[in-house]
Known about the structure:
By secondary structure, this protein is mainly alpha-helical. About 50% of the residues lie in helices and about 10% in strands. The chain is built from six helices and four strands. It is globular and about 40 Å long.
Amino acid sequence: MAEVVLRGVRLHAVTMREALDVIARAIARGKGGWVITPNLDILRQAERDAWLRDTVNRADLVLADGMPLIWASRLQGTPLPERVAGSTLVVELAKRCAAEGWRLFLLGGAPGAAEAAA
């Protein structure tokens, strides 16, 4: 999978559809995974914080959640194909889970958030 590095943070150069396919292949192999969707704020924090940068860079899938990251990748000559927002990814992944008969586990949130998500 192609990667782009912005300010020390590794991002996978994939579309939403490709990201869902990567996740689907991991599920088919019975492998867990870790997806991070950094935006400009997280990128800036990771630039200053080695622990955060290393944590983000260890994720199985790192997706650009923010147009400033897309623009920066274009300016540096290594364009990312599109923004893959975490909020959109969750919705699309839930649809894929329903279509494939996969279970989806959501952890955390304020009281009532789980019921609203369901």
